[in-house]
Amino acid sequence: MTVxxxxxxxxxxxxxxxARLTVDGIRAAIAPVLxxxxxxxxxxxxxxxxxxxxxxxxxxTGLILLGISAEDGGAGGTTRDVIDAVIELARAxxxxxxxxxxxxxxxxxxxxxxDLPHRQETLERLVRGELFASTGNERSGGASGSVTAxxxxxxxxxxxxxxxxxxxxxxxxxxxxxxxxDEDGQVVRFTVPTSRLGVELLDDFDAVGQRLTAxxxxxxxxxxxxxDEIVRQDQGRPLNPWGGSFxxxxxxxxxxxxxxxxxxxxxxxxxxxxxxxxxxTADESVADPYVRRVTGHIAAxxxxxxxxxxxxxxxxxxxxxxxxxxxxxxxARAAIVIAEAQYVAIESALRSAELIFDVGGGSATNRDYxxxxxxxxxxxxANHNPREWKLAVAGAYHLTDEEPPTTGLF
Length: 410
Known about the structure:
By secondary structure, the protein is α+β, with helices and mostly antiparallel strands.
């Protein structure tokens, strides 16, 4: 299925806000939207109904600007503030949280890098409430990270051709970023409006979970680019080479949100639907000792996930305040803590999603309850990179001070 892009080539969004943003103000503004996302998530799961208007409503609150400084038009929140909000967003609907990952990642770059190429233009887009999608992934069969999309000079401009997969959030986005190979064999980055002629958004994502993340293909056919829409790779060595830490922390936050959502549904199931088994000593499900123990297990798992993820967020904040001389050590430590938190969050989400079914009987498997979505969503997020591999990296760090890889997965 091909999805029509926005009508405007300029991809302009809501007008700039007059009122100053605050963390508390944004949290209050998103609360009713999250409530509606949570209320409708179960039904939308079975109908492939994208909550386009609710996503746009979130963008209008300034949610993506939580971690951007007040001087730049944001709320001035910490990484912990941002990740805490992402957990609650994923608790309401983990699909939407994943769909907004590229937008939050873009905002994180703007917040942490004054030297970011095209920073002012990107900031203005974020302040207008515009959303981003980004991927370098292709189904080319090559090695991980290989790029076959091409960008070639054409007169005074460039032409872009190729197909990108896992374009997370693409169907909601105003802007699409990706990578392509130029005539010299160098990989360059580009950002174009999703409304640009030749940009085709496909609704072809077909995973077992996270089905409504708008993560289909983006087909690029003779897309015209100008020089200022291209960023060539910086050959310098950053003080902190673990630039993927925020993106990995974001995935952990989604898992923590899924664990919390599993708790919400376990409580709903016990209170509203479940009945005690025939040999139970309780007259109602909420009084059954077995159901209480299972629910307590889910609650403890959700708490462990959230606590670990928020602690990891604080470590990432420490990196941003580190001196130049201490940036590498702080970055490595944060990358490891995030990897460990990701493991805890994944395990918690998967286990919690399984235990829901122990709260109820056979009817808990009814499709209209859609309780299986929690496990499917957690499993799909977990497959972004192997958690057992991350444990081995964490172990090496603690045992021999070996730094984590700088592949972008830490």
